[in-house]
Amino acid sequence: MFTGVVFVAFYTAQLTATLTVQQIQGTINGPDDLQGKKVATTRGSTAAAHLGELRAQVLEVSVIEDAYQALINKDADAVVFDAPILLYYAANEGKGRVHLVGTPFRKEDYGIVFQAGNPLRKQVNNTLLAMREDGSYQQIYDKWFSSK
Length: 148
Description:
With 148 residues, this protein is of the alpha/beta class. It folds into 2 domains: 2-10 and 110-145, no CATH class; 17-101, Periplasmic binding protein-like II (D-Maltodextrin-Binding Protein, domain 2, 3-Layer(aba) Sandwich), CATH 3.40.190.10. It has helices at residues 2-12, 46-53, 64-72, 83-91, 120-134, 136-145; strands at 18-23, 38-42, 57-61, 78-82, 98-101. Helix 2 (46-53) links the parallel strand 2 (38-42) and strand 3 (57-61). It starts with a helix and ends with a helix.
């Protein structure tokens, strides 16, 4: 089980850094520009805690869709959340209205956990490894998270 979590975490680390989404006309280019800005994120998240450290004005919402709406309505200057969620939004519903900027705040891994002895663990690990090796993982990533 531990090996499965580590394996998945290693390959998804690039997807799970917290990034900033801002409106195209914005002046935010990274975490250093968030001080004093109104930044939306979900209540109780690691992003909310980190934004407080950056001395941003944190607008905590219950669901990420409310953060997107605050950004579109200009009630927030930026949105900070998990990279896969923001990448998907920027490439789909937010396409042409928002874009990602800045560097990752920090890596936060996702994992798949199985009960001890679950035969699916080995199958999932082997499938993920095969997908990385044959390029299909990158194709899926590009399809769902690329804003091009």
